[in-house]
Amino acid sequence: xxxxxxxxxxxxGSHTARALLTRGDEVIIIDxxxxxxxxxxxxxxxxxxxxxxxxxxxxxxxxxxxxxxRTIMYREACQKICHLAARAGVRASIADPxxxxxxxxxxxxxxxxxxxxxxxEHFVYASSSSVYGEMPTAPFREDMxxxxxxxxxxxxxxxxxxxxxxxxxxxxxxxxxxxFFTVYGPAGRPDMAPFLFTWNIMHxxxxxxxxxxxxxxxxxxxxxxxxxxxxxxxRPFGYEIFNLGNHRPISLNDFIAAIEHAVGAKAIIxxxxxxxxxxxxxxxxxxxxxxxxxxxxxxxxxxxxTHFVGWLRANRHLYL
Length: 320
Ligand SMILES: NC(=O)c1ccc[n+]([C@@H]2O[C@H](COP(=O)([O-])OP(=O)(O)OC[C@H]3O[C@@H](n4cnc5c(N)ncnc54)[C@H](O)[C@@H]3O)[C@@H](O)[C@H]2O)c1
Hints:
320 residues; 13 strands; globular; Rossmann fold
């Protein structure tokens, strides 16, 4: 199977590429290697893949550039599309909503349009738990009505789900949206709390705890997410959306304690008020993904964060 993977140089993308290549698929990566976090990390991710696999081609291109995207997609004629490229920071989206909308909404529209033009069989794309906003009840189910996103990022991800539905409705394109719940693990994004807290605790630097520590997140280990992405790619439905989470949220205070334990050092905690755009709780209901994708997360946070700490110790040089 030949798969177009946007955002393949990034965190989830590079792990997904490795899993696809390992099982024998051909992978075509499109990524613009932007500097939201240091591009050398993305180049390292790709170089590591290129050392091990031949069936990989990488295009440095921007999904906002329709003509370039069209040239690549006609040339490669991939059977399936796994669209993970996006601007992915909640707080950064408040600072630059234009960039977020252009990349996430227009970029996704370009890919949907070209998926239809080039006859792709299945369009799988990354959505986010952020689309749930401030839900009064948890766990979050895919069929909850969602029309109150609380950050530009969340609004762009909801817009992608709507556009995917339109393309499915008009053109019969099978579309599967995956709402990822805070993903962490080796090569994890350095702007996210699992990385930042681990790094700072490891180096004796203070961490900032936003709010009173009672907020809860459903942290999902990267290997579990990748298993879910591959299961989704393998099972086209008409139009579906799946939560991919761990279904075991932990409080910010327990999160810090688990990292302290894995690192073997105490955190120096600075307190700050809750940030705009942050939600107080995320928790995935994964019954639908279990039933239709056979998705089953296996990694408790304490285990995943211990793997991550080991990986970060071995790869610390990438972040200096
Ligand atoms: N990591 C999480 O916890 C999480 C949670 C929910 C949803 N998501 C979604 O999953 C996807 C992957 O996230 P990630 O954590 O791996 O982020 P990431 O930033 O590591 O990966 C995204 C990749 O997309 C690329 N990209 C961004 N804009 C592009 C453009 N205009 N053209 C081409 N490439 C572009 C980036 O260079 C990067 O390599 C994103 O769609 C994100 O919104 C992630």
